[in-house]
Amino acid sequence: MAQDYYNLLGISKSASAEEIKAAFRKLAHQHHPDKPGGNAEKFKEINAAYQVLGDPEKRAKYDQFGSAAFENGGMGGNPFGGGGYDFSGFQQGGVDLGDIFGEMFGFGGGRHKRGADVRVDVDLTLKDAAFGVEREFSLNRTLPCERCGSVGAEPGSKMKECAECSGKGTKTHTQRTILGNIQTKTMCGACQGEGEIPEKKCTTCAGAGLEKARKTLTVEIPAGVDDGATLRLRGEGEAVKGGERGDLHIRVHVEPDRRFERDGDTLFSSEKIGFTQAALGTKLDVDTLDGTVELTIPPGTQAGTQFRLRGKGIGGRRGRGDQIVTVEVVTPTKLSKEQRKMLEDLNLRE
Ligand SMILES: [Zn+2]
Ligand SMILES: [Zn+2]
């Protein structure tokens, strides 16, 4: 019969994700088969309930269609009477039930298992971004169990065919509905779709093949990354048994540097000079990411003139870009009597 998952977990239909998790934890603890007074059947039930209610997408489908959509054992009796759930939703628009079920069980279209992606952020200075930098990330991820090599078997223990599914990894169910018989395939829960189970389970991971572990990962951040970019490291996300690992996404934040404006691999900066310097020429100490360099301003330099410092910009695959220095000529605003007199005598015109 259809079970009410909310009742099973002892929570209301409006329970928050945290409440659902807390209720599941408490009950799982209470009924765990390894514990005195534990109850494997009950444990299985609450686990099934949590698999659905703990996943926002599945929960929404459950709220709409009811638990029969998720149960392995078929519905029995009149599917439209059980549990007070209305299946009319399945009829509308000729929805293909096989697809819906396949999607619900994550089993449709031959999709393979893949671990979740992991996302982290990294803050870089402009210099880090320009030259590239090595960074360490301390990540708490689900990783393949080291003891059993993710197989789930105690080292030395053999694998045997799963009796539940005769080694197929799936179970086929036939449901009678007013649309006719519908066959659905679900993953075998006993072997997690593997078709075989170890004779003795791994003592570290209890057969799950996975372990949660905090590990430090050193990542070489390449020169040239820009603010807002995401670096993807394939296979550095979470592990899943019998499938490929997810990816690690590193979102890059580059702190602005007040001295420079960046455009791709080019840096822009500006320097102020007086008009005597502009007229006669001078040497300037200019800030670059590599430290101070001397820039020669030739005599007769106009305001707004740009000077290119080759190879002082942001690095990348094709080497470093340039830094462009724009010269501003500052007109004096406060003149002494003497200065004023001298300028009047000079009477510089265009
Ligand atoms: Zn293990
Ligand atoms: Zn099986």
TrEMBL record:
GO terms for cellular component: cytoplasm. Zn(2+) 2 binds at C162, C165, C188, C191. It is found in: Cytoplasm. Pfam families: DnaJ (PF00226), DnaJ_C (PF01556), DnaJ_CXXCXGXG (PF00684). Its cofactor is Zn(2+). A zinc finger (CR-type) spans 132-214. InterPro entries: DnaJ (IPR012724), DnaJ_C (IPR002939), DnaJ_domain (IPR001623), DnaJ_domain_CS (IPR018253), HSP40/DnaJ_pept-bd (IPR008971), HSP_DnaJ_Cys-rich_dom (IPR001305), HSP_DnaJ_Cys-rich_dom_sf (IPR036410), J_dom_sf (IPR036869). Binds 2 Zn(2+) ions per monomer. One of its GO terms (molecular function) is zinc ion binding. GO terms for biological process: DNA replication; protein refolding; response to heat. This is Chaperone protein DnaJ. Belongs to the DnaJ family.
